[in-house]
Amino acid sequence: MFRTILVSIAAIAFTDIALQLDNALAISSLASTLPQQSRLPILAGGVLLAALCLFGFTLVGSQLIDRIAWLKPVAGLALVVIGGKLVYDFIRP
Question: How many angstroms separate the CA atoms of 40 and 48, rounded?
Answer without folding.
Answer: 12
